[in-house]
């Protein structure tokens, strides 16, 4: 079901057949000349598409409204497209509406790169797309109904990675700021992960730690809206204290989302990790179509076990494995938290 979207100044809703007259009154040649599918002159009979849209509620198209009045349209029919009536140009409405639609689109971890484009000479639309993060992807010819001829179209592309780099998620708790790891986090990460008392509690980090290994892994840690990322934990004064990450080896196909974390020893025993894990549980269940979150703790790490149990995880297995930094076999306690159990906590 296509959902309604609310921004600071706009209300985006599914269009209905009753909008036909309002839409016709907004469309002038100044609108139609920059659109490929818009005929000119535009007649009421050209609004038959509203019948299809109303009968297909999943189609991603919205009427852009302000104070209850339609001012334009926006949609994702294979690519991002939009228009505003000329009297609403220059107020940032197109950027505001498009940003909200893109945020909804890229919240899907399976989101593919998104195309858009503008007629050469349409500097206003070009500026909107550039502000949103779209990059040039070649010039092509496309038929324009208004011109009844082919026109030059500058195609544009926005990848999930670039969108999320420009619009990173942010999680905040009473005492912590939780943000995707960035290159500036290398030094505090290395300081923490190179400590023997930290590495011994983690499964895949060797000791001593090679800086090049951390640099390589930080590429995989980057948040791109998908099924793997690591977030830095900071106090409200921006002091780095640890990290928390998640990973699904099958990109969700096997419902195998797992959670991992590490805390600098200077901050042990203060409840920071319990606070961070609680926040990330909410983030993961809100954002991803998963029914459970997995986690593990080595058998001689009671503090980590306590964090998981406090947040509702239950042990379901014990697995021996060769711990990377210790280089000998240890027992891993396997935990999981079911989505339907979360509501009872």
Describe this structure in words.
With 345 residues, this protein is α+β, with helices and mostly antiparallel strands. The protein has two domains: 5-164, 3-Layer(aba) Sandwich (Aminopeptidase), CATH 3.40.630; 168-342, Gcn5-related N-acetyltransferase (GNAT) (Aminopeptidase, 3-Layer(aba) Sandwich). It is 29% helix and 30% strand. The protein is built from twelve helices and 16 strands. Strand 4 (69-76) and strand 5 (80-84) form a beta hairpin. The longest helix has 16 residues, at 272-287. It is elongated and about 75 Å long. The model has no long low-confidence stretch (mean pLDDT 92).
**CATH T-level topology of the largest domain:** Aminopeptidase
Q: Which range best describes the helical content: under 10%, 10-25%, 25-40%, 40-55%, 55-70% or over 70%? A: 25-40%
Helix-strand makeup class:
alpha+beta
Known CATH architecture of the largest domain: 3-Layer(aba) Sandwich
How many domains? The number is 2
The whole-number mean of residue pLDDT values reads 92
Low-confidence stretches: none
Tell me the β content: 25-35%
Relevant terms:
alpha+beta; 16 strands; 30% strand; Aminopeptidase; 345 residues; five-stranded antiparallel sheet; 2 domains; 29% helix; elongated
Question: Can you summarize this structure?
Answer:
29% of the residues lie in helices and 30% in strands. It is α+β, with helices and mostly antiparallel strands and 345 residues long.
Please write out the topology:
Layout: E1 5-6, E2 11-13, H1 20-26, H2 29-32, H3 49-55, E3 61-66, E4 69-76, E5 80-84, H4 93-106, E6 114-119, H5 123-132, E7 135-144, E8 149-158, H6 160-166, E9 171-172, E10 176-180, H7 186-193, H8 196-199, H9 211-221, E11 228-235, E12 240-247, E13 258-263, H10 272-287, E14 292-298, H11 302-310, E15 314-322, E16 329-338, H12 339-342
Antiparallel strand pairs: 1-2, 2-3, 3-4, 4-5, 6-8, 7-8, 9-10, 10-11, 11-12, 12-13, 14-16, 15-16
Helix pairs in contact: 4-5
